[in-house]
């Protein structure tokens, strides 16, 4: 019982110490989570955990170690602001992964990223062809930044002097054959409009509809349970049975 009470007290003290140190370090530790920040955070967390639960040693020893790590973190942050070289050593620098639509294999190997991982990151940014990429950079925090090729950059309405309109989201109105009347009302549509749109696509029964949504341009997108898509695209090169 006495040991449990000691652990509770030390855990509470550790919690508020970490909270205080987190406020001192500032938002940079979370906002730009580089590999150095990640390892440093794990180390500080490990020391804090030991401070809270290790009853075989004095709490002061772990408290001093925790304080040293926090002070070093703050000092390196301050020096890194003034010294660009130390900042590069601490956080590394961006690495070019693609240029002019071409993959730079040596740089991929340098940062240990596979082509599949690179393509997945591009798709997450709505880029489905390497030809659309002018430059792709791996940032120090692990994120990939992409500059689209000028041939594929989206033209803004302001570039064509077109008056802007209020943006709309895609609104789901049918899921698994069931109408979402609330969403229809939000888009100023009714059941008659929905029926007419479905009839225009030769759909007479809601049970045929797997998913339907009103697009931002007020047209209806419909996906049926028995869609005929022809030969299904296979993007896998794995020859196995599953």
UniProtKB/TrEMBL annotation:
<keyword id="KW-0472">Membrane</keyword>
<dbReference type="Pfam" id="PF20730">
    <property type="entry name" value="YetF_N"/>
</dbReference>
<feature type="transmembrane region" description="Helical">
    <location>
        <begin position="59"/>
        <end position="79"/>
    </location>
</feature>
<keyword id="KW-1003">Cell membrane</keyword>
<feature type="transmembrane region" description="Helical">
    <location>
        <begin position="36"/>
        <end position="53"/>
    </location>
</feature>
<feature type="transmembrane region" description="Helical">
    <location>
        <begin position="6"/>
        <end position="24"/>
    </location>
</feature>
<keyword id="KW-0812">Transmembrane</keyword>
<dbReference type="InterPro" id="IPR048454">
    <property type="entry name" value="YetF_N"/>
</dbReference>
<comment type="similarity">
    <text>Belongs to the UPF0702 family.</text>
</comment>
<feature type="domain" description="YetF C-terminal">
    <location>
        <begin position="82"/>
        <end position="213"/>
    </location>
</feature>
<protein>
    <submittedName>
        <fullName>DUF421 domain-containing protein</fullName>
    </submittedName>
</protein>
<keyword id="KW-1133">Transmembrane helix</keyword>
<dbReference type="InterPro" id="IPR023090">
    <property type="entry name" value="UPF0702_alpha/beta_dom_sf"/>
</dbReference>
<dbReference type="GO" id="GO:0005886">
    <property type="term" value="C:plasma membrane"/>
</dbReference>
<dbReference type="Pfam" id="PF04239">
    <property type="entry name" value="DUF421"/>
</dbReference>
<feature type="domain" description="YetF-like N-terminal transmembrane">
    <location>
        <begin position="7"/>
        <end position="76"/>
    </location>
</feature>
<dbReference type="InterPro" id="IPR007353">
    <property type="entry name" value="DUF421"/>
</dbReference>
């Amino acid at each position: 019982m006495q040991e449990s009470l000691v652990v509770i007290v030390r855990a509470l003290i550790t919690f508020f110490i970490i909270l205080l140190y987190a406020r001192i370090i500032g938002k940079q530790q979370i906002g730009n989570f580089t590999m150095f920040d990640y390892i440093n955070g794990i180390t500080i967390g490990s020391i804090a955990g030991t401070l809270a639960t290790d009853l075989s040693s004095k709490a002061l020893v772990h408290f001093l170690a925790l304080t040293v790590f926090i002070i070093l973190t703050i000092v390196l942050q301050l020096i890194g602001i003034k010294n660009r070289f130390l900042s590069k050593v601490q956080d590394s620098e961006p690495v070019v992964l693609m240029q002019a639509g071409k993959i730079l294999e040596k740089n991929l190997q340098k940062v240990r990223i596979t082509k599949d991982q690179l393509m997945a990151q591009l798709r997450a940014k709505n880029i489905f062809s390497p030809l659309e990429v002018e430059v792709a950079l791996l940032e120090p925090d692990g994120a990939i930044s992409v500059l689209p090729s000028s041939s594929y950059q989206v033209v803004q309405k302001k570039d064509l002097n077109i008056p802007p309109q209020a943006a709309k989201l895609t609104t789901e109105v049918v899921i698994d054959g069931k109408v979402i009347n609330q969403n229809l009302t939000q888009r100023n549509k009714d059941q008659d409009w929905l029926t007419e749109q479905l009839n225009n696509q030769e759909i007479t029964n809601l049970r045929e509809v797997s998913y339907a949504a009103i697009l931002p341009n007020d047209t209806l997108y419909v996906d049926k349970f028995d869609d005929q898509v022809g030969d299904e695209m296979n993007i896998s090169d794995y020859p196995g049975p599953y």
